[in-house]
Amino acid sequence: KAKGQKGKKITLKIAKNSIRISFDGGRRLDLSKMGITTFPKCILKLADVDELDLSRNMLKKIPSSIQKFQKLRWLDLHSNQLEELPGAIGTLQNLFYLNICNNKLTTKSLPEELNLLKNLCILNLGLNCLDSIPTSLGALKELKEIGLFDNALTTIPNSVKKLPKLKKLNAERNPFPDSTKQEQHSNSLKCVETLYLIQEKDLCSSCLKMCQDERDKLNKLKSMTPGLSKKPSFPLLLTPNSSAKDNQEEWRLK
């Protein structure tokens, strides 16, 4: 029992044997579901990896030494017991994917340095204890997807909702003032295909025809699939990650 409380000890040999090649050729250190309770210092010797997966463990803290992983593009810390993140995470300038879903993070424990991740495209903050979202996250101009579901949010700052490249925002199951406003938060983003930035009369004939043809194709596709749900689907954000179980309830902290 005492050994179980300490968690599994990760040696450098175990870590080296846990390196995989990702679909795009990067080196991924996969230490998920290993029963780890403390950040293994030995992996600092493997800091040249492109991806690091420490998800589904029992980690309560990530040390500032995470900054040694300067090549890191992909960091998955979901389903741990994290109560805080180090400000040093803001030094990971190559990071484009950060999943810290299903932890014990509060708004106060989110470091201000998160807004330094200028290349971040996907951020998952779902299933935490957040009662507000820092407006400073509006500095993440490359952000395309953000998960805010299953928190204690009553509003989402405009600086986040109006991020220039944001396409998917999942804010379901938050205590917004009423259902109408919750629907507005969850569906405030429109598909790029239906967003017109200029009037049709300002288009040349060839451009206008091309736009009309594309619109006709889209309408035809919709008419051919009447049985499909009109509710947007966000596969990367409904569950802690793409390989997680379909039933999100299984990931909810008891």
From TrEMBL:
Residues 66-222 form the Disease resistance R13L4/SHOC-2-like LRR domain. InterPro entries: Leu-rich_rpt, Leu-rich_rpt_typical-subtyp, LRR_dom_sf, LRR_domain-containing, LRR_R13L4/SHOC2-like. The keyword Transcription regulation does not apply. Coiled coil: none annotated. The keyword Repeat applies. Residues 222-254 are annotated as: Disordered. PROSITE patterns: LRR. This is LRC18 protein. It comes from Aramus guarauna (Limpkin). The lineage of its organism: Eukaryota, Metazoa, Chordata, Craniata, Vertebrata. The gene is Lrrc18.
